């Protein structure tokens, strides 16, 4: 089972927040045998949130082998040529380590910030990914679309990976699963997708025909994760910071059915997480493997968790879970 580490990019309230902790975690995850570090995109958060693509570039400069993934870039906010160029150049600079994961976005405040109508998000997403893929694969692109017009556009340099970096997409509704199969190479679940729902959604996703040029039907399960000597120790380290994050999510998703899941108790959270002793965490990873997952992305450090606690969990996953 391949593991990814979802890094905490939230600001810490200082005047000049740094990525020092994220770099330390990424280096340790590389040593521990994780397959990816994974970053998300967020805006209008106090006390701040690091920009995803410059942060990924910084991490590329401070690591050597570990994959560099996003889950995900909010595609409707980005011009496809700028996005294709930036990710292609990052793939070259990192020696072919990029996996580009995307999402539609959901916060009305963020759509207003970028001047994008939420009703256009699916159309913008599909046009963006179509153009990114065409530009990456070496075509000279002429395109007259709803949002973008190109005449003879091309990329130089192209990405290091042949034929291109892999594409992931998040989303939980049937239309998102069909879109992922048609346009991308892997589906990333939400962190609060229930275990009861996952087998059916994995089967539904893999039942859709793959689009021309796609590279697979990968399933990446995103979960809260914390490995400690005992399940009690894992709870002591994770519960408080995670509850603070979930309280914030409840406000952000106040109009979404997801809001109720973020108000659930500890037992419900751990029932869909990879949390506990090394043996318990190994069992949970095997459980997701049996469902058909190809990888699991773990959010180990919610905002407010001390760096030392996060490092201990990463080290434990490497020494006592992955090694087993």
Taking the alpha carbons of the first and last residues, their distance comes to 11 Å
Instruction: Give me the side-by-side strand order of the main sheet.
Output: 1-2-3-5-8-9-10-12
State the helical fraction: 40-55%
Low-confidence stretches: none
Q: For this structure, what is the CATH class?
A: Alpha Beta
Please write the string of helix (H) and strand (E) elements.
EHEHEEHEHHEEEHEHEHHEHEH
Annotation field: number of helices: 11
Q: Do you know the CATH topology?
A: TIM Barrel
State the fourth-level CATH superfamily: Luciferase-like domain
How many runs of DSSP E, i.e. beta strands?
A: 12
Number of spatially distinct domains: 1
Helix and strand composition category = alpha/beta
The dominant shape is globular
GO molecular function, one term: alkanesulfonate monooxygenase activity
Protein name: Alkanesulfonate monooxygenase SsuD/methylene tetrahydromethanopterin reductase-like flavin-dependent oxidoreductase (Luciferase family)
Domain Luciferase-like: 13-294
Keywords: Flavoprotein, FMN, Monooxygenase, Oxidoreductase
Short description:
With 324 residues, the chain is α/β, with parallel strands linked by helices. Helices cover 42% and strands 17% of the residues.
Can you put this structure into words, describing what you see?
- Strand 1 (2-6), helix 1 (20-32) and strand 2 (36-39) form a beta-alpha-beta unit.
- It is built from 11 helices and 12 strands.
- The model has no long low-confidence stretch (mean pLDDT 94).
- It has an 8-stranded parallel barrel with strand order 1-2-3-5-8-9-10-12, surrounded by 7 helices. A two-stranded antiparallel sheet has the order 6-7.
- By secondary structure, it is an alpha/beta fold.
- It has one domain: TIM Barrel (Alpha-Beta Barrel).
- Helix 1 runs parallel beside helix 11 and helix 2 packs parallel to helix 3 (80-93).
């Amino acid at each position: 089972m391949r593991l990814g580490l979802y890094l905490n990019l939230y600001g810490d309230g200082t005047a000049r927040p740094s990525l020092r902790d994220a770099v330390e975690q990424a280096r340790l995850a590389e040593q521990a045998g994780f397959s990816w570090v994974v970053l998300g995109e967020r805006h209008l958060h106090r006390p701040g949130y690091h920009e995803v693509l410059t942060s990924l570039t910084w991490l590329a400069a401070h690591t050597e082998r570990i994959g560099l993934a996003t889950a995900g870039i909010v595609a409707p906010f980005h011009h496809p040529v700028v996005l294709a160029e930036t990710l292609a150049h990052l793939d070259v600079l990192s020696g072919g380590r990029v996996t580009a994961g995307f999402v539609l976005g959901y916060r009305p405040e963020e759509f207003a910030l970028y001047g994008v109508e939420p009703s256009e998000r699916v159309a913008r997403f599909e046009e963006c990914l179509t153009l990114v893929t065409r530009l990456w694969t070496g075509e000279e692109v002429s395109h007259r679309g709803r949002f973008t017009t190109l005449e003879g556009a091309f990329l130089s340099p192209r990405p290091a990976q042949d034929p291109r970096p892999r594409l992931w997409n998040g989303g939980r509704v049937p239309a998102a699963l069909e879109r992922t199969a048609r346009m991308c190479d892997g589906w990333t679940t939400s962190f609060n997708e229930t275990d009861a729902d996952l087998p059916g959604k994995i089967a539904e996703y893999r039942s859709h025909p793959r689009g021309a040029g796609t590279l697979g039907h990968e399933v990446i399960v995103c979960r809260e994760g914390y490995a400690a000597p005992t399940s009690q120790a894992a709870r002591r380290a994770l519960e408080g910071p995670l509850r603070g994050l979930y309280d914030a999510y409840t406000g952000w998703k106040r109009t979404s059915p997801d809001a109720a899941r973020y108000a659930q108790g500890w037992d419900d959270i751990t029932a869909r997480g990879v949390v506990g002793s090394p043996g318990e965490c190994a069992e949970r990873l095997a459980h997701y493997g049996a469902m058909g997952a190809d990888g699991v992305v773990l959010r180990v450090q919610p905002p407010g968790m001390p760096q030392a606690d996060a490092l201990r969990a990463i080290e434990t996953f490497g020494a006592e879970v992955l090694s087993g």
